[in-house]
Amino acid sequence: MEKADLLSAIEVPKSFTDVLYLTNKGQMPYEIKKLLRQRKLSSRILGVDKFPEVRSQLGMIGTVVIDAEESDALQQQRLARIIESLEMENIGVILLTERMETPIRSFSLTPSKTSFSMGGTTEAVSIDDLWVRISVNLAYRKKSTGMAVKPALPPRQVQTIYKNKLAQQLSMTGAMVDNLTEQLRLAGLVQQDFLQTQMPNTDKVRWATTFLPAEWVSGDIYDVVRIDEQHIAFYVADVIGHGMPAALLTIFLKQALVLRETVENNYRIFSPAEVMKNLNVRMAAQKLSGYQFATCCYCLLDTKTLQLTFARAGHPYPILIRPGEAPEQLEIKGSLLGVFSQSEYVQQTIQLQTGDKFMLYSDGAEPFIGSVDDETGFHFSEEFSSLMELPIVEMRDKFRELTQTQEIDPAEFDDITTVGFEIL
User: Fold this and answer.
1) 193, 318, 355, 382: most buried, per Cβ within 10 A?
2) Could you count the other beta carbons within 10 Å of the beta carbon of residue 297?
3) Which of 3.10.180, 3.40.50, 3.20.20, 3.30.420 is the CATH number of 17-144?
């Protein structure tokens, strides 16, 4: 077959959308619209809240551009889940956070507003740079979905050669898969070595944790650490994504999360809001490849006064379970880590009392805890509600059983992590 014939065998479905543009503004910037038109790429504009409508059609989408400018805390949490679902489908994501006033010359356009800020960085990119990222995402996507050159069947005398080569390649691939599986298993064990196993239990406070990776390695991480005789710090963090890149970032988060500073013979404990702000600055400064972000909820417990102070960065709301009262989600604002380097974080303090239980969890646990209704808000599931009166350790054990037996949508299957305690 001639080269020209091979190129003519490219198969791209007519319903395939090259660029899905997610925004709550109802329109696409003129420069991007012009770029896609010049490059003859198909596109579709969709509101962020309408994304569930295309969940079943992701196989027909090339790359996704998300306009996250002026998004609030709830929208950012929604964006985190969207990015994670796209990453699971091997769809490249380009996150635009704000328009830049700085003029950046481009071969396509030269006005002073032809650049955008990319998520996870503070650098600006020209419209040509944006095209490069879109084209790379599309090339990878079309190759991974089989929309590549499909040559005609080779002559019969050549088929034997192809079969022998295929058998050899399959054998080598099998060995590589086995080796990779073992490496991932060992990496998972190393990652779990970083987790706290000895809980700071006292006659006042009893702790319980759950850590169930969806794969060998996890994008979740937690810690429970005694800072001094009076204060215990704890958190759950969740990297947006899966696999080894997410697992590596969890180790970075653990090392970058600084709880106090020491000056000569004295020390000062950072407030939860300071911890979140400092961690966000460190993460944004890394300019991580692949637009990796994270969520986190960090808490500081005073074991003498039983005051609990917490701050949140795009993470599911913590739960307060008080005897004789309905469970409560403690809502507090806070943007994702690693997106906006100048983000500010707030904190909230509650007074605990005997019998109270408090729980942090990653979004992989959410399908087993409850669900969100657009009109009435979050509702706890009957199964989870039946566990709330149990002691914290027994509650943890029953919850783990629940995650093993309850069927959920495979698209919602994720790493599951919980950290909880009970005031005795």
Assistant:
1) 318
2) 27
3) 3.40.50
Measured CA to CA in angstroms, residue 310 lies from 40, 221, 229, 231, 423 at distances of 49, 17, 19, 13, 17
Q: Tell me: pLDDT of 10 over 60.
A: no
Q: What is the pLDDT of residue 137?
A: 80
Q: How many CB atoms lie within 10 A of CB 64?
A: 24
* Tokens encoding 225: 């650490």
CA 91/CA 16 separation, integer angstroms: 13
Q: What is the structure's pLDDT at 206? A: 94
Q: Which two tokens stand for residue 226?
A: 């005694």
Burial tier of 326 (Cβ tally within 10 Å: 0-12, 13-18, 19+): exposed
Instruction: State the pLDDT at residue 5.
Output: 38
Instruction: Give the CA radius of gyration of the chain.
Output: 25
The domain limits of the chain are 17-144, 199-423
112, burial (CB in 10 Å: exposed 0-12, middle 13-18, buried 19+): exposed
